[in-house]
Amino acid sequence: xxxxxxxxxxxxxxxxxxxxxxxxxxxxxxxxxxxxxxxxxxxxxxxxxxxxxxxxxxxxxxxxxxxxxxxxxxxxxxxxxxxxxxxxxxxxxxxxxxxxxxxxxxxxxxxxxxxxxxxxxxxxxxxxx
Length: 129
Prior knowledge:
Blueprint: E1 33-36, E2 45-52, E3 57-60, E4 65-70, E5 80-85, E6 88-89, E7 93-97, E8 102-104, E9 106-110, E10 117-121
Antiparallel strand pairs: 1-2, 1-7, 2-3, 3-6, 4-5, 7-8, 9-10
């Protein structure tokens, strides 16, 4: 059986034995350059701003922009209309090589010089930072 955490009735998240949310394994990290491969913003290239490991979603710069209406909290404050990036699922983005201008899957290999595990683009062989 799967344990579910608190929250809204329709929005339960899986939790581990410590009560923390179960992390979704992802192929991208914050700061990666990615291309959107599905959805309304298909083909757009941007940088990952935020990663939510509990839901498996990422926020990409300039992608999935929506308007949010903010009501004034105090009497003398004025309401606002903000445009901000909303998260999309990590499966809808692929890593992108700026040098070659091509998207690629990610691979893992051990670097001979340092002996550390590094990520690289499978199409170009380019090592990711």
